[in-house]
Amino acid sequence: MTIGEVKDILEAKVLIGGERMDEPVDTACGSDLMSDVLAFVKDKTVLITGLINPHVVRTSEMLDITCIVFSRGKLPSEEILEEAEESGITVLSTEMTTYTACGELYVHGLPGTKKRAGAEGA
């Protein structure tokens, strides 16, 4: 799946990274706990969250997350958008809840991360 397909499925607005719509994504993760994201996420992941703070971008940068989707129509500050742009992370916003957004991506074929990052066989 590509970021552009994620955008279309979630009926999302592109806030940063419109030029990266053809980039592939392999998995999705929905969480407001960045400690869970650190434990379970791999690269080329879409992070769906309702948490609006700079830690989301910093965590995403550390894990090579391709795209952040802010749920429930939340819009991040300019500071967060600038940090995401500098990190090459695409940022979208959807009116869907985190739960619904994850479900939509799943039924359209985008799997979640199943094992802890670094776990044997992950």
Please provide a brief summary of the model.
By secondary structure, this protein is of the alpha/beta class. The chain is 35% helix and 17% strand.
Which key features would you list for this structure?
single chain; 122 residues; alpha/beta; Udp-n-acetylmuramoylalanyl-d-glutamate--2,6- Diaminopimelate Ligase, Chain: A, domain 1; 5-stranded mixed sheet; 5 helices; 5 strands; 35% helix
Question: Your description of this structure?
Answer:
By secondary structure, this protein is an alpha/beta fold. It contains 5 helices and 5 strands, in the order H-E-E-H-E-H-E-H-E-H. The chain has helices at 3-9, 34-40, 54-62, 78-87, 98-107; strands spanning 13-16, 27-30, 45-49, 67-70, 90-93. A 5-stranded mixed beta sheet has the order 1-5-4-3-2, sandwiched between helices. The protein is globular, with a radius of gyration of 13 Å. The relative contact order is 0.25.
**What strand order characterises the main sheet?**
1-5-4-3-2
β-strand percent reads 15-25%
**Biggest sheet, in brief?**
5 strands, mixed
* Count of beta strands: 5
The domain tally reads: 1
**Could you say which structural class the secondary elements and strand pairing correspond to?**
alpha/beta
The N- and C-terminal alpha carbons lie at a distance of: 20 Å
Gross CATH architecture: 3-Layer(aba) Sandwich
Task: Find the CATH superfamily.
Answer: HprK N-terminal domain-like
CATH topology: Udp-n-acetylmuramoylalanyl-d-glutamate--2,6- Diaminopimelate Ligase, Chain: A, domain 1
CATH class: Alpha Beta
Using only CA atoms, what is the Rg?
13 Å
Write down the overall mean pLDDT: 90
> Helix share of residues?
25-40%
Morphology call: globular
- Low confidence ranges: none
H/E series: HEEHEHEHEH
How many helices? The count is: 5
Quaternary form: single chain
